[in-house]
Amino acid sequence: MFVDEVDIHVKAGDGGGGALSFRREKFVPKGGPDGGNGGAGGSVFLVADPHRNTLVHFRFNPDYKAQRGGNGAGALRTGRGGRDLEIPVPVGTLVFKVDPDTGEKQQAADLTVVGQRVLLAQGGRGGLGNAHFATSTNRAPRKVQPGEPGLEFNLHLKLKLLADVGLVGYPNAGKSTLISVISAAKPKIAAYPFTTLTPNLGVVALSGDRDFVVADVPGLIEGAHEGHGLGHQFLRHIERTKVIIHLVDVSSASGRDAVEDFDTIRKELKLYNPELLKKPHLVAANKIDAVDDPKRVTALEKRAKKLKLKFFEISAVAGTGVKELIEAAWPIIAKARELEAKAIAVDEDEDEGHEVPADYNPALMPPLRSGTPKKR
Ligand SMILES: Nc1nc2c(ncn2[C@@H]2O[C@H](COP(=O)(O)OP(=O)(O)OP(=O)(O)O)[C@@H](O)[C@H]2O)c(=O)[nH]1
Ligand SMILES: [Mg+2]
Asked: Which domain range does residue 85 map to?
């Protein structure tokens, strides 16, 4: 099951309480306070895991809690620290903090890199034991602190897959067939529309160490923006792609007008997000093996050329022209990756010399519970 939006609740561990204790040894009367501090509660992190590509596991487990810190003990023993909780999420997961009162969402993180680890809820600090409060005038303090509560949040997770190439087209155009030919993905393929109900990802390996990720999204039809067919709901998964391959069925058997189909899909893309049309597009006339009226192909080619888009004739089933198509996508991907790498390098340079304030709280958001934890 493919799930790309979920609500979860996370809670960091509470800090352990400080201990109230006095040293008791034979022949040492009034041994003095020796209550140790409580341990810190565990924090909650999200980690981008390349082996996940849906949020489905959250559907059944919406609550996450890190371990609390242990209480302090006599003989100045500090409580053990609570274990941190790491929650794996697919790469491309956006995290929003949900205001418990208004339901308003505010973006808190975007996990775009494999292994990226984001602190979401900081564990509470441990309370101080009575040993801490001993002074020259109060040598037997009975004061201890409770542990600080761990922060907790309501979160909304939204997946925007990170693929290099997005495959779009009418239902039945052959998108799933193409992804099954160029990658190891094995989506369902059938001779009826809306075979694909959720996006599929595939890795395409070219010669050398070149590879990229393709997303096959469910077919679009006219009026998708109004919810027709499967609607626009999956288009956000191609918003972050670097290239769009627009597949058009030009076979005579389809009984469809290739140019009309092509224009309809472009219109739907634009209605969803005009930026989608600004991405590089490659137009692929598919099912070239089943064409008996070549005019269908030339008309589409003319339309593509008019828009200054590269045009390919392919047969996903027979493999004709497929290599040329994916090789044409590569330079665009390579260039975009280079620009991305540069942008990250610039970011890192700018980070240099930034001073982190001493009271910096790495918790990304203000706490859910009312009132902030007590200052010490
Ligand atoms: N003759 C011919 N048939 C093809 C070709 N590519 C795909 N088909 C057939 O077209 C039909 C639809 O293919 P799919 O790959 O399921 O199409 P899709 O675009 O993924 O369709 P949806 O998931 O419904 O949007 C299947 O019967 C395929 O065998 C091709 O190059 N030539
Ligand atoms: Mg399909």
From this structure: 5-159
